[in-house]
Protein: HTH-type transcriptional regulator VirS
Amino acid sequence: MSTLIRSALLVKYSEIARTIGVDPERMIHHVGADRSCIVSPDLHVPEPWLAKVLDSTEQSSSCAAVGLLMAESWRLSDFGPISLALQHQPTLRHALGQLETYRHLLSESVFVHVEEVGETAIVRQQLITERPIPGRQPVELSVGALLCLMKSMLGGSWKPRSVHFSHSAPASLHVHHRLFGTRVEFGCDFDGIVVDRRDLDRPNPLGDVNLARYAREFLDQHPHGRQVSTASNVRRAVHMLLPRGQGSIDQVGQQLGMSSRTLQRRLEQEGLEFSSLVNEVRRGLACRFLGDIRYPVSQVAMLVGFAEVSTFSRWFSAQFGTPPTRWRAETNH
Structure:
C-alpha cells in the first residue's frame, strides 16, 4: 500500500500550476491520478501522485521551482486539521512535536527530527518513500512548508541560520533566496533547517493551552486520526538511526519510548518481525545512497549498518542479485 498524503498538497499544486501556464487537470490525468484530488483538500491519496505531478511539471515547463512556489504560498491553514493545534502550541518545540504526532493527517512520508548541538538546533526533515530517491521537488516543498510553520511561531520577519539540501544545486537559486532569505547550502548530508537553539523555546504569543487541548481532542476523534502502526513508527526510527550506526531493537525501542520486549510483542500482534523491517529500510537506504555518486560504496556500507564493505557487498548481492558497484553503474548509466 502506498504512503498516503493529504490531497491539499495537490490542491495547492493546481493553484500554482495555473500561474506558470500548466493545466493541472491535464497533468493529473497524465500521471494517472484522480481529478478529485485537486478539488477536495481532505482526501488521503498516494504520495507518488504528488511526486509524479511535480516531476512531470518540471519536465514539461520552464519552471524548475514548482515545489518551492507551492511552499512560498503555503499558509498555516494548509496543514489542515492539525493547523489549530500547531497555532496554539506554547513554543516551536511543542509545535514540531505535534507535527510528528499527527503527521499521518498531513503526510505519512514526512519525518521531522530535532538535534540540538551547542547553541544551534538542526531540524532535520526526511521523506520516507517507496522511491530510492525522493526527488528534489517534494523535498524542497516539504522544507519550505516547514519554514512556514517556523515563521508562524516566530514571526514573519524571522530567518533561520541556514537551510540545507542533500541534492545538488539547480541552475537558478532565485526562488530559494526569495523564500528562505538566508544561506542555502546544497550537497549536504541532510535536508532541513538550522536555527538558534533558543528559538525552539521562545514563547508563542498566540499560544493558548485550552485551545491546544481542544484541538488535540478533536484530532484524536478525526476519521483519519487512527493510531499509527508500530511498524510505521519502527520504519521511521530505523530510517533515522541506521545512518548513525544504530538501529538495534533496544535502540529503536528507546527512541519510541518502550522496552524491546514491548516493541517485539506489538510487532508480533501486527504479524511482523523487527529484523524484516530493518532489512526493508536498509534496502531502501542502500538504493538511495548508491544512487548518489557522492557517496563511495565504503561510506554507503557504513550508512546502512555494515562495518565491512565485503559484508555489505554480500548482503546487497543477495538482496538485489548484483554487486553494489555494478548496480550503481547500471542505475546511473
Remarks:
- The longest strand covers residues 110-117.
- Residues 68-201 form one domain.
- The radius of gyration is 20 Å.
